[in-house]
Amino acid sequence: MIGWGDSKKPFSNLARRQVEGEMTAKFKKQHEQLESEHKRLTEEFAQLQTTASSTDERREGSPFGKREEEATETLELEKRLALENRLRQELAKIEHALEKIEKGTYGLCDNCGQPIDPERLEALPQASLCMNCKAQLAKNAKVSPPPR
Ligand SMILES: [Zn+2]
Fold first, then answer.
1. What is the mean pLDDT of each run of 10 residues along the chain (148 residues)?
2. What sign for the dihedral angle of Cα 24, 26, 32, 34?
3. What are the extents of the domains in the chain?
4. Quick one: which of 124, 61, 76 has its CA closest to 97?
5. Residue 108 Cα distances to 65, 72, 73, angstroms
6. Counting beta carbons within 10 angstroms of the beta carbon of residue 124, is it exposed (0 to 12), middle (13 to 18) or buried (19 or more)?
7. For 139-148, how does the pLDDT look when each residue is reduced to its tens digit (9 = 90+)?
8. Phi and psi (nearest 5°) for 98?
């Protein structure tokens, strides 16, 4: 595709769309996986919200065992928030990957721009970092305090 950009053709938009199409075709499987995963997580997220409101309704109608129930509810709430956060993070990753497919940068590492191992993309379609950068970031993330 590089090399025919100097002649300003009027249908350059069309050409661009073709490139995007190739991109989607190349990662068709990942694209489908990401779409269905996105749908599944969105549904799970919605379900979580529904469950949350029904718990609130139930609370009003129970006159005894209040303290114990409150403790349980706090725990439930914490669990729900943790799950909600996890879902939100997963969704963000998947949306990011879908965006990369649209932009034509899918399969390239966010950090160094090198192609991500196709096997890694097979196993984890939402991966946005190559193994090297992933390992590097993980190492930086858990900087252990110096031993005494
Ligand atoms: Zn990288």
1. 48 51 81 96 92 60 66 89 95 97 95 95 96 92 69
2. negative
3. 13-107
4. 124
5. 56, 45, 44
6. middle
7. 988 766 666 6
8. -65, -40
Cα(19) to ligand 1 centroid in Å equals 23
Q: How far is the CA of 58 from the centre of ligand 1 (A)?
A: 49
Residue 54 CA to residue 50 CA, distance in Å, equals 6
Q: What's the confidence (pLDDT) of residue 71?
A: 84
Distance from C-alpha of 30 to C-alpha of 101, rounded to nearest angstrom: 9
User: Cα(71) to centroid of ligand 1, in Å?
Assistant: 45
pTM score > 0.85 for this model? Answer: no
Name, in order, each residue with C-beta under 8 angstroms of 52's C-beta and a sequence gap of 6 or more: 80
Question: How far is the C-alpha of 52 from the C-alpha of 80, rounded, in Å?
Answer: 8
Give the span between the Cα atoms of 126 and 33, in whole angstroms.
9
Helices (H), 104-117: none
What is the distance in A from the centroid of ligand 1 to the CA of 109? 5
The Å distance, Cα 100 to ligand 1 centre, comes to 15
Q: How far is the CA of 31 from the centre of ligand 1 (A)?
A: 21
